[in-house]
Every structure is written in C-alpha cells, then in structure tokens.
Amino acid sequence: xxxxxxxxxxxxxxxxxxxxxxxxxxxxxxxxxxxxxxxxxxxxxxxxxxxxxxxxxxxxxxxxxxxxxxxx
Length: 72
Known about the structure:
By secondary structure, the protein is mainly α. It has one domain (9-62). It is 67% helix and 0% strand. The chain has 1 helix and no strands. The protein has one helix at residues 15-62. It is rod-shaped and about 80 Å long. The N and C termini lie far apart (111 Å).
C-alpha cells in the first residue's frame, strides 16, 4: 500500500475537492437560511405595520364621535 499525503483537513488526494465543495455547499446553505430569515422578518414587520395602519383607519372612521345634527 502506498501512503497518501493527508492535508490538514483530513482529506487525501481526490477527496480534497469534495471536501471543499461540501464546505462551500454548507456555507451557501447557511447564507440562504440567513437570507430567508431576514426576508421572513421583513415581511412580518411590514405586515404588522400594515395591520396597525388598517386599525388606525378603522378607529378613526368608525369610533370618532361626530354630532349627527347641528343645533341652530
């Protein structure tokens, strides 16, 4: 058996390229997960602001007391 040179990351020869692609895939997956979380958070913030605006419009329109008839 021949001895193969093993690198610092523990992979030898042809497996080394696989190790780098796996690491890149993990990095990409982590980035996508972070991006998805950011987009979800931004959507929730936008939706909550929108609901507050709708509630404010509703309250202003229906709950403000206005005189029905003016006294002369």
